[in-house]
Structure formats: C-alpha cells, structure tokens
UniProtKB/TrEMBL annotation, chains A, B, C:
InterPro entries: ClpP/crotonase-like_dom_sf, Enoyl-CoA_hydra/iso
Signal peptide: none
Lineage: Bacteria, Bacillati, Actinomycetota, Actinomycetes, Kitasatosporales
GO process annotations (BP): fatty acid beta-oxidation
Name of this protein: Enoyl-CoA hydratase/carnithine racemase
Organism name: Streptomyces echinatus
Amino acid sequence: MPTLDRQDAVFVLDLGDGENRFHPDWIASVNAALGEVEKAEGPRALVTAATGKFYSNGLDLDWLAAHSDDRQDYVTAVHALFARLLSLPVITVAALQGHTFAAGAMFSLAHDFRLMRADRGFWCLPEADIDIPFTPGMSALIQSRLTPRTAHHAMVSARRFGGQEAAAAGIVDQATDEATLRTAALELARTHAGKAGDTLGTIKTRMYAPVLTLLRDTTNPLG
Amino acid sequence: MPTLDRQDAVFVLDLGDGENRFHPDWIASVNAALGEVEKAEGPRALVTAATGKFYSNGLDLDWLAAHSDDRQDYVTAVHALFARLLSLPVITVAALQGHTFAAGAMFSLAHDFRLMRADRGFWCLPEADIDIPFTPGMSALIQSRLTPRTAHHAMVSARRFGGQEAAAAGIVDQATDEATLRTAALELARTHAGKAGDTLGTIKTRMYAPVLTLLRDTTNPLG
Amino acid sequence: MPTLDRQDAVFVLDLGDGENRFHPDWIASVNAALGEVEKAEGPRALVTAATGKFYSNGLDLDWLAAHSDDRQDYVTAVHALFARLLSLPVITVAALQGHTFAAGAMFSLAHDFRLMRADRGFWCLPEADIDIPFTPGMSALIQSRLTPRTAHHAMVSARRFGGQEAAAAGIVDQATDEATLRTAALELARTHAGKAGDTLGTIKTRMYAPVLTLLRDTTNPLG
C-alpha cells in the first residue's frame, strides 16, 4: 500500500512495491496522502515513486471484473484522483523507476514533471490493444499534456516507450540512470518547494479547466 | 480516378495519377473505398498513395468556379470526407510521394501516420497566398494534429515544407527515399492491422470530438 | 513612449528604451500604432522592437497599486491589446533584444514570429513566483502558442529561458546574435508583407477563436 514520507520540504509518496494497481483501497490511500500534502503549510513539494518493476499498471481490472456494477463509481473515483493531482497547489514530480502503463501512465501525466529510468521499463497506453477505449476525461488529460503527434501515436498504436524514447517524445522531462533517478526527482521538487500555495493551484486549475470539467463530470464519466 | 486494392490485411487506396483534386466524382470514389474498408472484417489497415508528381492538390477550384451555387454543399462534402477518415476504425497511413497541397495536405493530416518522400515534393498550406481562408472545420483539423508553432507557421506563411523539413516540424512521421516509401507505409500499416475495430474508432472519435463536430456542422460550414 | 516608423513595406514599432511596462498611456500609444498599421493599405508587415535592456517587463504594477479600483478595466485593456495583435491582418515579428517578462512575454506570443538575442536577456513568465495568477485569457493565449510541455514548464516553474533555450523549447523561432537581430526581423517581415489583408486576418481569427473570446470577455476578465 502507498506510504507517505517527508524529507524536509519534500513529501515522498511511495506507490507500493507490486503492480500498484488502482484498487479502491489504494485510491483511498493516495487520496489521504494528497490531502496531507494539501493541508500542510509552508514550502513543500511532492515526489511520487515506487519500488520494484512497476511504477503503476493502472486500473485494477481483477477488482473491476468482480464488481462490474460499480464500474461507473470506480471510474468516477479514478477521474477525481487525476483531477486532484492535476490541480494540486504544490509542485509534483513523478519518478518512474519501472513500468508505467494505462491509468498509471495517465497518473504520471497529471504531475508537473516526470523523470524516467533510462535503461529499463516502459511508459505505455495499451488501451487500443486491450479493447478499453479511453474515457473522454482520460483522453482530454492525455491530450492536454502531450504534443498532438505524441498523443495520437501513443493512444492509437499502444507503443511502449523506453526512457530515452519517452524523453525524445516529450512524454517525460528527462531520462536518467536508475541510481540518480530518485535523487534527481527530490532535488527538482526541493527547488520548487517555495511555489506551493494558492497561486500555483489557481494557475493549474485555469490551465486545465476543460480537462478538470470532464474529469469531474460524475453523470457520465464513461462517455 | 481512385482505385482500391488489397494486399493481405492492407488496403491500398491509390488517389490517382494526376493532380488528384477533389472533384465530386473523386470524393464519391474515395468515400466508396472508405466504406469498403469500414465494412470489411478482421485485421485490416489502410494505406493511401498516388502516382506521379502529386499526392493531391486539394479542392477542385475549376469545378468550384463553374458551380459557385454549390459551394456550401461541396465544402460540406469535403468536411465529411475529412471527418470520416479522421475517425476511421482502422489504422491509416498516407504515403506522400508528391506534392501535397491545401485540402490535400489536410486530407493527409486526417491519417494516423504520414510518410513522405525526402528528395522531392512539398507539403504546403497555400491558403494565405491564394486568398482562401481556412474554414473553421479545416482550421480545427490542422491545429489538432500539429504543434501550435508548426500549425501557425504553416497556416500564416504558406511555407512549402520538403520531406526533411516536414519530418523535423512533426508534420510527417518520417521522410524516406522514394524507393522505400510505399514499402515502409505498407509495413507500418500491416504492423497495426490487428488494431482495427470499434475500440480504435471510439478512441479517435473521442480524441477529435470538437474537430468532428465542426467538420460535421452542415448549417454553416464556411464559417 | 512607443514610436512607429516605416521602412518601405515594414512598419517598425519601437516599444521604448525603459522597462516598457504597460502604463495606460503606453497601451494607448501601442493601440494607436496598431491602428495605423491596420488602416494602411497594400503590402505591409510589422516588426516590434525596443532599445536597451528590456523588450518589456509587462504590467505596470506601480500604476496598478495606485489605481486598484481600476484593476478590472486595466486588465480588460491589456486583454484587448493582446487580442488585437493576435488577430492583426498583417504578419507580425517580435525582435526580442532584452528581457521579455510576464505580460511582455505574452505580448511577444501574440506575434506571428519571434526572434531573440542569443547571448543576453531572458524570456520568462514569473507569475508563479510573484503571486499573480494568469487570468483565464492570458492562460489561453500562452497555451495556444506553445507545446503543452513548454507552456506547463514556463507557467508553473517561472523558469527564465535564455535565447538558445527559448529557441529549443519553441518559444521563439530563432536565436540570433545581437548585431543581426533587427535586420533578420525586418527581412522576415518584408518577405511576408504581401500576405497583409482580410484573408490573413480571417485565418488568425478562426485559429484563435476560443482565445479571442476569453480575451474579449469584458464581464469577468480576472476569472
């Protein structure tokens, strides 16, 4: 399960050491952590990270198969998590040490910055291959953070981007070796800790107003 | 006139060996071909190509001058063709072997991927020079597939992009030599033939929802 | 104060030799100059430039502090200036010889092209640091001209981009040495003087319709 730690001004949210899929308990735990970061005061920033082969593999498809009646509520909760992270009033940095797939990849796009391990692991939107269309909110989130060409390529071809390719395509800001990944993420977050506050929250909220509207639409999240 | 051929999973639509302008008969023929691709079943993809100096020079201005009363219906039909291609439920690849101008360039942008001959031929939106403003639907289509800077540059300056420049600007995905252009397009299409189906159609339809709405607006297509 | 000069087909608007902040008199003077360019006939283009260490430092915060009751009218006037420049029916080129900050940076983004001195001066959106959120109109303007990644980076991190970095990030079209900056801007403008006219105005107006709507919203410009 996710755990929140603090190193001076920087909160570090470890998403787990498994596939870190979005089980309802996992979502509740990440929400609680984001709530702590929000309500803290003074200079602060957030790094999300994980341990092992995966950053996150996205939706918990096993849980979803066993709770198909809850599909709409579940997607609403995932959307709300994306919206909260996308508009968080502190600088957020994702340290992608392993596979970052599907809703896990979208979660990474809701951060201000992304660093990715260069030598192993893929960033991938496999939806076109696994027959799960992006919801309108997910589509808008992805398209709001990537160039049209990269968004189109990633969304229709399900291409798996290694760290160097992801950096070249502008999906991540930098590809680094594994040893320096977390240090670099912490340092980047620390640099921008002083920006935490309402102004930053307003800036992000206005930038992504149409995306947030779609992600917070609870009446028809599946489109 | 356009002809549709099939090589295993890949349909090849040859747009013609002239200027391949959008005469009403040409539009009807391309529509019929897209209909065949849509209604086919199983893995499949589409390559569009042409023979000679032109991929397509766009609107049939001679026909339009002789049928000025039909201007609105004509533009509505062109818009509908763009919308159909943009949301086609199979992967589409344009092999640009020659000049790709104006509505021909927009037609190329409605594909999933574009390959272009490196040594000859230009991709160009000459509208600013020939005093034909882009319709709102055309403008939205172009802007949805290019970076803001490339779209602005191409649309206000009427610059002619050679293959290498078009690749550097992200207008096309790759510039290749003439000998390998069609082979590369076929191979790319073949790779993605398994993605054909409703999910892919839904993904594209949601990505470009605002563009499709403008392109399918039959009440005031000219803006 | 700004002065308008003409060299053959190219109008040159010098924004001043100070910080060139948006005092109401400065805004009126720039508006008058744009009006002259608009009402002139025949081939023409516009270069904006300045003298000294600054291209423009943006809003006149001293004046605003002394006239806080006029805040909404003032922002409405700044928005209107951006909208007018963004849709001007002639090609516009900004020659950034010095610091280009905040609303000065947004003013530069409303041009068709930007050239920037390579060795000194920064392009920067410091709003996140100085606790002034972008208005919805300003946010839309910036996001309409930059890639999602560059816009996000510039808007949340307040990074100062030197000329080379600004060119690499696609903020400016070219970084040049100081000696050739104005000559290059004049030459680029001259090349496109023949495009002046209604078609170009319509092209820009349609491309940026949603941005212009926000910038011309006089009821709630502050969001």
